[in-house]
Every structure is written in C-alpha cells, then in structure tokens.
C-alpha cells in the first residue's frame, strides 16, 4: 500500500515545520520526516505509481525501479544524517529550505515524465539557493545570485529541450534520448550544468564554500547526484560523457591541489568524484552503470562526512583557510572530529575497508573491461590526486602543520555540539559498513554484480598507489602548505567578468548615450511643456507666420497664459451657441425629413 | 625521529613491492597492468607530476589576488 510520494512527505513536512511552535517538537518532526519517507520507500514495490492526468498528458510521479530506488534510499539516508547534524539550528527557514530541496530531488528521482522532472528540477534550484543565502554574508549573497542565475539558465535550456522534444515526438515520457536530435542536446546541456561538468561546473566551487555550515552538507549530496541519476537514466552509453567525466575527474584534482579554502578544496573534489560517475554513465556497460550508482551512493555519504568535518572546524574556529589553521595543533582539541573526518577521507581515497574502495574501483575496472586505456589512466591519476588533497594535504594543514612561529592562538577551540558529532559519526559508520560489507550495497545496484574488490592483487595495488602518494606528499609537503591567500580563476571568470563588463557598460557608455539623448530632446520637451501651459501660443505662432510678421517664438512661449488677454464679451458665446443650435436643427430636419 | 619515519616508510614500500610480486594482476587489460609493481611508480610519479603541474599552473595563471573580482 502506498499513500504519498516520498517527495511530498518532505515538501509537506517542510511546510509544517514552521507551524510548530514548540522547539523539541519541531526537532522531532524534522527527524521523523526522513523516517516516514524511508518507511514508504521500503514498502514500495517496483512499478509505476501516482499517474496524474494533466491537460492532455499523463504525469508519472512514481516510476520505481532499482535505479530510482538506489538513489532514493541514499537521498533519504543522507537527509536524516544531515538533519541530525543541523538540528541545533534555531532558524527554521533553513530546515524548510533543506527539506524542500530534498523533497524536490526525490521528485526528480521518481519522475517518469519530463513535466514533473522539470517542475522538481526548478524547485531544487530555488530551494537550495536559500541554503547559501542563510549564511548572510555579502559574499554568500553574491555567490547565491550567481548560483541561482546559472541554474535558472540551465533550467531554461532544459525546458527548451523538453518543449522541442515533446513537439517533435508528442511524448512526455522520460526515457533514453536519441542524442542526434537538437532537443536531446539541449536536455543534455541542462543536465550537464547540474552535474557540474567543466566548463559548466564553476557554480559548484563558487557556491558550496559560501553556504551555511549545515546547508552545504545538504548541497553536496543532492544537485550533482540527481544529475548523475538523470544522465544514467537517459544518456547511458553516450560517448562524449566518457571523456567529459575523465577530464572532470582530473580537472577537480588539479584545482584542489592549489586550493587553500577548505570547503572550496572539497568542492573541487565533488567535481572530480562526479567525474567518475559521469564517465561510468558514458561507458554504459552494466558494470559501469553499477559503478556509477554505487559510487554515487558511497560518495554522498563520505562527502557529507567530509563537509561535516570541515564545517565543524569552521564553526568552532571561525576560520576557513588552511593558512589560518595550520600549525595550531587543532588535533589536540578536536580529536573526534579529526578521526571521523579521516574516515571520510580514507573513503574518498579508496583505502581498502572504506566505502570508496568498493565503488570507485568498480568504475576504474569498468574502464578496463571497456578497453579504454587513456580513460583508465586518467581515473587512476585522479585517485592519486584525491588521496593527496583530501587524505593528506587538507587534514595535515587543518589539524597539524609545522608551526613557523607566526601563528596566533585560536580561542575556545573544542569539539562541535554533540548532534554534529553524532551526524558525522553515523556517516562515518556507514562508510565503514559499506566498505567492509560491500554486498549490502551491491544488492541494491540495478544489475547483478560480478566484481570482487577484495582480490589480493587489487588490494596490494591500491595500497602501493596510496603509500607512494604519501611519499610524494612528504617530498613536496612544504610546497603544498606554502602560499598566500588568493583566489583561483575558473570558468566563472567568464560570467563574472561579463557581468562586471555589463555593469561598466551601463555605467559609462550607456549613461553617456542617455545624456546625449536627454540633451537633444531637452529643449523640445521644454517647448512642449510650455505649449501645454499656454496652448493659445500655438495659434498665435501660426497666425504671425501666416501674416509674415516677425515674432520670436521663444518670446511668444515665454508668456504665461493670462485669461484676461483672451476674455471676450458673453454675447459672442451666446451667439456661437445659437449658431450651432441652428445648424444642428437644420441638419436634423434634413436627415429626418 | 625523522630517520625512523623514513625507514618505516621505506620498509613499507619494500613490503608492498614484494607483495606486488607475489600477487600479480590475474586479469590484466593493458600492458601496464602486467607489471606487478606498476602502481608504486604510478603513485609516486603521478603525485609528483600532479603537484608540480598544478603548482605551476596556479603560479603562472590561475591564482590571483583575493581582491581580483572586487575591483570597482
């Protein structure tokens, strides 16, 4: 028995939360919503539900199969964990935004038609931008606007594609597309923006570091992974995705190496990790699609743990840059956060016994089975870079680091509130469970799994890779920690500079043009204004022109209307009305007679 | 202390080197997967390559002053 789509459980729940005035009750409801959603998911057999007739089309709000269930499970799980992490927040608007965001993502996952897909897609963008704005700093405000504009642009492109698709095929079903049509290209473009595929990715490292501490944890899970889901659903086996994904994986890694802002560094690793998934979707084999799903599942958990860990650091220290944190020996004061962060870091680095190892390696192996030597090497290289930045550089810089004597003391550093620790702890626990017992995850994948991550040769090779990355890190450790505070240019440069240029254009050339126009019309409008005050002047001007008498126009206009000049005896008025009456009677009698 | 750490590191690398020889990849797809200790070289040179390349790119092009976008 199914009653309410999971998406609406969240959306209705989100709207209920602000109505409850008792804080404890509010918190209980906030935590109960994911539990309800999970209960619904567990009772949902595969099939198609909630068909709604809309105009001439049939909307499908519940296409349930293994692929959509896999993503729905992890979205619900992570929303629960993230809500525990965020439950101390008193500002209810943040919870409302977060749950609208989660609900709309679930709507996307279960959408069986393009209308409802687009509908939820747009709510997702609109709700998530508030998680940035709630940070309430000028930079987050601007970053939020850029984020919103990029996603609205992507949404418009997607809508264009959907409209073209429907008008050419007549069907609104959300199924695999034929990439040779223009409609499919538009739709793919819209999806790629949300998947943060370079060069369309810059919104992600721009916005995620500016979100609230808890809001960013939500954001890491949903937007990009729902894009991976729709790509897997509709563009599996598309060749261009193989290359885009592999480039993405390396691209993010390279940026992360030079990045010093802790959450921006992690954001680049979202780009990198989603690259693995996009690549796997492009490969399109059963193993690759399993890998994409499995990696999305694992990635959502460990990335949340990583963002939670770094969020905790920002919360207690108020600092967000490695250069402000290194050498302060924070590990002494927040050891629990460190350990839990490291579980996430080992997971993303695919250390055996942690969950990244059972999913990422599946994608790399799928590249091998697909005979893609260059792709395999690129993904392999990205693994090296992942451990280097997230597993070594970031924790070393944040919690350890060689003091050089210039460090200031950070006051009152302690572990974050208990609920934040519990959130991190649950995430870390899941990382380890899925890492040690991969079958729990493999059972959920869309196809049968014939992959054994724990083959001895595989484990040894992975350890070799990791250990020698550590060696490379040790050699360059000072170089990686050095530098001054700076920002890294990315493809957002184009629209930021463009926006700035538009502003400059408005301020100078356009304003000058306005001045010119104003000057040219100023005297004309003055004449018009004076004429309207003194309309008789027009007659006088015409009269003097007719009789050929020289009279200055300005002089005529200078005079204001004076009724005494134009006063005539009342008899003339009476006479005129009598003449009109006479004429009227004449015409009337001619017509009537 | 530093030499001890370095020795532990070298010992671990050596151990993994030997383990790599013991457990070669049973299903190699590419020629480099037939080399039993390929990942030792790949990890080492890969990480150095990434660091040097990224640092070079950052230094010469990507990293700008933090007020770069705030010029009014």
Question: What class would the helix/strand composition of chain B place it in?
Answer: mainly alpha
User: Can you list the strand order of the major beta sheet of chain A?
Assistant: 1-2
Number of strands of chain B: 1
Strand content of chain B: under 5%
Order of helices and strands of chain A: HHEEHHHHHHHHHHHHHHHHHHEHHHH
Low-pLDDT regions of chain A:
none
Tally of distinct domains of chain B:
1
Note the overall shape of chain A: elongated
Largest sheet of chain A: 2 strands, antiparallel
Please state roughly what percent of the residues of chain A sit in beta strands, choosing from under 5%, 5-15%, 15-25%, 25-35%, 35-45% or over 45%.
under 5%
Q: Work out the largest interface and the residue count of each chain.
A: A-B, 47 and 44 residues
Give the count of helical stretches of chain B: 2
Structural class of chain A: mainly alpha
What is the rounded Rg of chain A? 33 Å
Assembly form of the protein: heterodimer
Commentary on this structure:
The complex is a heterodimer of chains A (593) and B (72). Chain A has 593 residues and is mainly alpha-helical. Chain A has helices at residues 6-16, 23-42, 66-86, 92-110, 114-133, 138-169, 182-194, 203-207, 213-234, 239-258, 262-283, 286-317, 322-325, 335-348, 355-369, 373-399, 418-436, 438-442, 456-475, 477-481, 492-533, 536-547, 553-558, 570-592; strands at residues 47-54, 57-64, 486-488. In chain A, helix 3 packs parallel to helix 12, helix 10 runs parallel beside helix 16 (373-399) and helix 16 (373-399) crosses helix 19 (456-475). Chain A starts with 5 loop residues before the first helix and ends with a helix. Chain B has 72 residues and is mainly alpha-helical. Chain B has one domain. Chains A and B meet through helix 10, helix 16, helix 19 and strand 3 of A and helix 1, helix 2 and strand 1 of B.
């Amino acid at each position: 028995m199914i009653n309410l789509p999971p998406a609406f459980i969240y959306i209705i729940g989100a709207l209920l939360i602000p109505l409850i005035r008792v804080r404890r009750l509010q918190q209980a409801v906030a935590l109960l919503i994911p539990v309800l959603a999970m209960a619904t998911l567990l009772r949902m057999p595969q099939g198609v539900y909630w068909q709604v007739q809309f105009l001439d089309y049939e909307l499908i709000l519940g296409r349930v199969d293994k692929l959509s269930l896999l993503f729905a499970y992890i979205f619900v799980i992570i929303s629960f964990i993230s809500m525990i992490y965020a439950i101390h927040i008193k500002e209810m608007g943040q919870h409302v935004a977060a749950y609208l965001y989660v609900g709309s993502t679930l709507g996307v996952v279960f959408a069986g038609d393009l209308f409802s897909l687009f509908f939820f897609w747009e709510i997702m963008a609109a709700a998530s931008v508030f998680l940035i704005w709630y940070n309430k700093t000028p930079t987050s405000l601007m970053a939020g606007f850029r984020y919103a504009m990029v996603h609205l642009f992507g949404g418009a492109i997607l809508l264009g594609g959907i409209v073209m698709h429907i008008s050419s095929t007549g069907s609104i079903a959300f199924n695999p597309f034929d990439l040779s049509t223009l409609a499919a290209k538009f739709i793919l473009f819209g999806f790629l923006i949300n998947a943060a595929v370079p060069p369309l990715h810059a919104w992600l490292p721009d916005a995620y570091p500016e979100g609230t501490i808890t809001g960013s944890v939500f954001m890491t899970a949903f937007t990009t992974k729902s894009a991976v889901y729709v790509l897997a659903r509709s563009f599996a086996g598309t060749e261009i995705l193989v290359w885009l994904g592999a480039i993405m994986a390396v691209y993010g890694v390279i940026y992360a190496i030079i990045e010093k802002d802790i959450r921006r560094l992690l954001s680049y690793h979202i780009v990198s990790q989603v690259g693995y998934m996009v690549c796997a979707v492009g490969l399109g084999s059963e193993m690759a699609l399993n890998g994409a799903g499995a990696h999305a599942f694992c990635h959502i958990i460990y990335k949340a743990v990583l963002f939670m860990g770094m969020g905790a650091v920002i919360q207690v220290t108020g600092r967000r840059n490695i250069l402000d944190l290194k050498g302060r020996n924070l590990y002494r004061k927040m050891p629990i956060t460190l350990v839990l962060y490291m579980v996430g870091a080992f997971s993303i680095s695919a250390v055996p016994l942690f969950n990244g190892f059972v999913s990422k390696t599946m994608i790399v192996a799928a590249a091998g089975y697909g005979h893609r030597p260059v792709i395999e090497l690129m993904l392999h290289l990205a693994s090296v870079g992942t451990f280097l930045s997230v597993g070594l550089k970031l924790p070393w810089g944040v919690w350890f680091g060689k003091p050089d004597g210039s460090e200031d003391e950070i006051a009152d550093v302690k572990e974050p509130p208990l609920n934040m620790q519990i959130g991190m702890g649950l995430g870390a626990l899941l990382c380890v469970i899925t890492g040690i017992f991969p079958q729990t995850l493999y059972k959920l994948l869309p196809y049968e799994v014939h992959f054994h991550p724990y083959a001895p040769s595989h484990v040894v090779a992975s350890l070799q890779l990791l250990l020698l990355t550590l060696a490379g890190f040790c050699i360059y450790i000072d170089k990686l920690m050095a530098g001054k505070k700076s920002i890294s240019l990315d493809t957002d440069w184009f629209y930021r500079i463009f926006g700035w240029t538009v502003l400059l254009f408005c301020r100078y050339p356009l304003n000058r043009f306005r001045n010119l126009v104003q000057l040219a019309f100023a005297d004309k409008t003055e004449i018009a204004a004076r004429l309207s005050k003194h309309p008789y002047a027009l007659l006088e001007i015409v009269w003097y022109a007719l009789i050929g008498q020289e009279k200055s126009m300005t002089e005529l206009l200078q005079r204001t209307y004076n009724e005494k000049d134009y006063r005539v005896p009342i008899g003339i008025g009476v006479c005129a009305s009598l003449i009109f009456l006479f004429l009227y009677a004449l015409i009337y009698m001619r017509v009537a007679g | 202390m530093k030499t001890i750490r370095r020795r532990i590191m070298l010992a671990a690398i050596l151990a993994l080197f030997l383990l790599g020889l013991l457990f070669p990849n049973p299903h190699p797809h590419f020629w480099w997967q037939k080399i039993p200790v390929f990942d030792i070289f790949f990890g080492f040179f890969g990480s150095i390559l990434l660091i040097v390349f990224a640092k070079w790119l950052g230094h010469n092009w990507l990293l700008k002053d933090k007020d770069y976008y705030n010029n009014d």
